[in-house]
UniProtKB/TrEMBL annotation:
Pfam family, one: Chalcone_2
PANTHER family (alphabetical): FATTY-ACID-BINDING PROTEIN 2
Residues annotated as transmembrane: 79-100
Protein name per its UniProtKB record: Chalcone isomerase domain-containing protein
Occurrences of domain Chalcone isomerase (ranges): 191-396
UniProt KW Acyltransferase keyword: no
Entry-linked InterPro entries: Chalcone_isomerase, Chalcone_isomerase_3-sand, Chalcone_isomerase_sf
Organism whose genome encodes this protein: Sporothrix eucalyptigena
Keywords, comma-separated and alphabetical: Membrane, Transmembrane, Transmembrane helix
Keyword Transmembrane attributed: yes
Amino acid sequence: MLQRIAVRAACGRQLFSASGRGSSATSTGGHIANLANPRAAFQRRTLIRSADSGGRSREEYDTLNVAKMARQRREYDRTWLIFLATGSLVGIIATGYTGWRIKELMEQNPKKLDATGTPQAGEVGARKVVVHDKDGREIVPTGNKTITEFPRTVDLPLKLVAGTPSSAIPSSDPAAVIVVPPTDGSDGPGTEYTLVGLGTRTVSFLRFEVYVVGFYVATADIAALQNRLIKRVNPIATALVSGEKTELRSSLVDANESQAIWDALLEEGIPERSLFRIVPVRDTDFPHLRDGFMRAIKAQSTRILANEPEGTAKANFGESMHEFRHIFNRGKAKKGRELLIIRGADGALSVVFDDGRSFGRELLGSVGDERVSRSLWLNYLGGASVASEAARQSIADGLVEFVERPVGTVAAQVV
């Protein structure tokens, strides 16, 4: 019995040592296989322990440079702070520059802060904005990028105006005209004209800009024009109130009523003296301007001549048109140069041009037929199709400003 137990114990020890040697061999072979195939080592798993997955060992963590990592973190934070500060600075500079540009644009084209440039509900029309230039002269912004401003008043020597009435001579009737001191020793006394309204003439559906035009009335003649317009709306009034001003403005921009109003006024010689100031926005020539004026005169004169008897009057009108055409047989009219078309007291038309040379304004010629100037004036003031709708709207606004004041006070205010 005892012998059998001893044999079993010896056999067990042999098996244990054999299994240990086999296990060591297996382990050694497995490590060799793992070295040959690292992916197999990564994928091996046991219930108690996973195989090495390529993570850092404890020794690696023990050798980490904490100071270096802290320094890198500080550098990262500093870089991020610089980036944020730069963005904030750029934003402040951009905001300041935008505000500065807006201020400059508002100074170039000043407007009331509560005005939108177009009439609001209950508002009769936009008012002219009058500012002063660096020399203290009163100017009116045009809204045009090329010709940015027009003078509020124009002073013309009497020698440049055809058909100057005797009442305009200061020595005979000082109250009939505002006398302007001569600009040099040879100009003599002159007449002051006040701007009523202005606008830009455009052509074709592309709205190419041709020139800026302004309508001026002799300051001394404003009272007569003011009185006639007021009496047309309210015969017993000396100034118009809001509803009456709206009625008058609607008539002045209506296709049919505006033509009837201005046709009657001009035929009666009201205003007695007026002019259109034309300044090209691009280089052009006199024949080009002449052709446009001729077409406008012919369009209006057809209706005017239809009411006159056949015979000498119509024949004389043809001669007047030939005279008008001859005035414009000239060369270039450069950008920014001033062309004045003046209607005198008897309806005679004068053309004055300033080519920018030392001579200043020069009289190019005149036409005595009143129908020529009346036809040309109607081309801007009345009818279904005018040369510049913007100018007609602005002129209507300017006339409304006149009639809201008592008769005779506008000229005194200008002076």
